[in-house]
Amino acid sequence: MQIERLRIENFRALTQPVEIGPLAPGLNLLAGDNEAGKTTVLDALRAALFDRHSLTGKAAAALQPYGHKVGPEVTLDFRADGNGYRLWKRFCQRPGARLEGPRGVASDDAAEDALQALLGFQRPRKGATDDRYQGVWGLLWVAQGTAFDPVSPAETARNALGAVLQAEVGNVLGGAVGQRLLERFRAARAEHWTATGRPGKALREAGEKVEALRDELAEVDDMLAGFERDVAELERRQRELAELDDPAVAEELQARLQAAESRAQQLADRRAECERVAGEHRVAAAEAERLEGLWRERQRLARELADARETLERRQAGQRDVEAGLVTAEAEETAARQALDEALTAEREAGDRLRRSEARRAHRGQATELARLREVGNRARTEARAARQAREAADAVTITAGILERLRAAADRHAQAAARLEAGGTAVHTRLSVPVATAGAVSRVAEDEYRVTGEARLSLEGVGEIHIRPGGSDLASARAELEAAQREFGEIAEPHGVATLADAEAALRRRDRCLADADAHERVLAAHAPDGLDALERTIAEAERELAVLAEAVGGDEVDDPDADVAEARQAQQQAAADVQRARDRLERATRSAAAQRETRAAEAARCEAEAARVRQIDGALASARAECDDDTLYARLAEARRAEQSAAQRLAEAESALAEADPETVDVQLETARAATAQHSEQRASVARQVADLRARLEALGHQGLGERRVGLDSDLAAAEDEHRRLEREAGAVKLAADVLERAAGEARRTFLAPVTERLRPYLRLLMPEAELLFDDELAVTGVRRHGVDEPFERLSLGTREQIATLVRLAFADLLAERGEAVPVVLDDALTFADEARFDAMKTALARAARRHQVLVLTCRPRDYLSLGAPVHRL
User: Fold this and answer.
1) Cβ distance 98 to 87 under 8 Å?
2) Residue 550 Cα to chain centre, angstroms
3) Partners of 98 in the beta sheet?
4) pTM of structure
5) What is the pLDDT of residue 186?
């Protein structure tokens, strides 16, 4: 198949008509920005080929533009089997389908059936289609964001590819017998082993029983050993408790604690003295720093005051120069405004003359337009009458698609009931040379053959009669079903005036033709009157009113050449407008100049005032500071504060030296150690006492459990369980060995079966990963990559590598189909977004190679990346 042209209208994001084509037989680029509708193009193509026009519900509503209740339309021109076709479909509003080809035109359901037969895909029983039903099309058409998903063909795609592979390599899978043998051993292996090679339920439970008995036996042994350990541990803990209760140990620990606390108190006194002296030093340092800051601030204010006074004198000189320039600019502005007033007066006079000239010309043009509108109105009325008559004829036919489906279903049930009745009847074969008469539930199906479906009689002339009563138990029910089906068909058909299914189909086709004629007349009407016939009538009436108004405006004032008169008036008006523009430009320049001078004067005045205010502010701040404390007094206070800080620093050093001599760390360690030793002694004594009590309680409990008798019983149970487990292991091992051997043989056959795919894939893969080999499963799905003898699962590869491998596999499948004369276009929607520069170049080479064998459509938002391919670009 080759797609040649595509037209889309009112489909999701594409509310306006979009036409794409003509498309080349090889590589094509469909380019558009984000949200331009590239993905919508692919969705429209899928819907046109694989969804029924009668699609309803949410799936149909999803095809409409958001917030619009319109009928999405798709028109597709394509070639298949060497012939050209045109497919048109409309969904939701007045749905319909039409397929034009070498065998003529098919409409609606007939078009759907012809399309399905032509392309060989399947349809779901209801709802929208998906990859499961689209065969190789669903495999080779890659939607946005799915290019890196594993290549896993659906059943319909596998069947199509399998047929091609079977035709090329023949039957290499061992035949039906070999397949049944493999499946039988696989089933047996599945009873004993899981899919991951672990033991199955029976073997696992036997092993678990052995392990459970072993664990229980080990637990009993541990409990017996623990009993003996607990006895020894109890004796040791009792000796330890006696040692901890010795009074001499407690007295020694208390004496050490008191001595450590005395030394710690002395250390705390020295630390307090050191902290007091440090506080005095911080106060002296803060005062010295404060006075130092005041002195630096006073020096800064004096420097800033001198600089501000110098700047103020420069600003005042500049302000005087700006005042002189402003006087000159204002004089020019006054002269320019007077010139503009004179030009505007001349422009108004020229405009009045132009309007009168244009009114005369408009009157003549309006008369011509009114004549045209009246002719269009006559044609539109004719089309409206024809459309109304066609719709009335369609409304007279009450048969609908739903009623026709009910009639078809009833006819199918009638045929099934008749077939069942005939199948349950008795076949009677005769070889007679006398005439035969029949009576009852019997029919003649051949020269010497009769079908009896109930009690019947065969009369043989000159011989006698044969009475036949068939023994089938369900003949009566089959006959009742046949009669019920006949009644059902009649109840549906009679209200609509038809007797047969063919009559109903003909009536529906007649109704569809009338509706199509009505649509055609309405389209012509819409071409003449896009806004409706009433709107056209109003337009004609409005044109008549406008002509009357223009006639009144023109009066009797006519000229021989209205166009020349308008041209002359327009030239005069343009000259006046040019004069006005020049005057405006002059005024604008003068106004800007004067405004600039005023802004400059205001800015200079503001700067002078700001500088003067700064001088006053700095002078006031300096005077206020000196009034509070003059410079000499401030400097003397600063010197005194520096001496006080030095004295406090010396006292702090002496206090810190005395504290260091007391060795604070050693004192703290001794106190902490003494306290910890006392606490540890108490905690250890309590812990040992608890352990003694716990051991006594546990030994008493174990003494009542009968551990010896329990161990003897467990030994016997364990021996029996181990015998059963060994038996199951031997059986499971034999089944697994047979299944593994058969699977290895099937694997060799599968590699032969996949040879055509790997042969087509090898040139593509060599561009990307020369050393790699792709791995497939029995269902033609890619499972991984083998590189340097190491198998890597597909899902563990990077997104970019998965995306590229999936694309190459699809190209190889498409090559295989094309070589067998079943070419299918490959469609990729933004499918190479994760490729680096080198691999992207390799993938472009692969696309160009594939495009020599079949059509490739690439939907992209970056067409510049594909310029090197020289492919035609179709922009959305």
Assistant:
1) yes
2) 61
3) 88, 107
4) 0.40
5) 64
